[in-house]
Design goal:
Mean pLDDT: 87
Distance between the termini: 16 Å
Helix content: 25-40%
Strand content: 15-25%
Number of strands: 2
Number of helices: 3
Order of helices and strands: EHEHH
Shape: elongated
Largest sheet: 2 strands, parallel
């Protein structure tokens, strides 16, 4: 199992962003069976964003990027 956390500071990723390079080192010989990815500050830290709560579109985008990036290397599924 590999656990990864990242404070994204409310930023939107590029559509083509590949987070796999951060999750998997170049010299990795065997991939873990499970990845746990925690993202902090999904929204900008201002009153309006905090009161509105989750931005579902942004969550979906990050889930898509993480799943796509990992599936380039092996078969993974998102359980989020």
């Amino acid at each position: 199992m590999q656990v990864f956390t990242w404070n994204i500071a409310g930023e939107n990723p590029r559509e083509d962003f590949d987070i796999g390079d951060l999750l998997i080192s170049k010299d990795c010989e065997t991939l873990p069976d499970i990845f746990v990815v925690g993202l902090q500050e999904m929204v900008k830290l201002n009153t309006k964003s905090i009161m509105q709560g989750k931005n579902r579109e942004k969550v979906n985008l990050w889930e898509k990027i993480i799943t796509r990036s990992l599936c380039k290397r092996d078969r993974y599924v998102n359980l989020g």
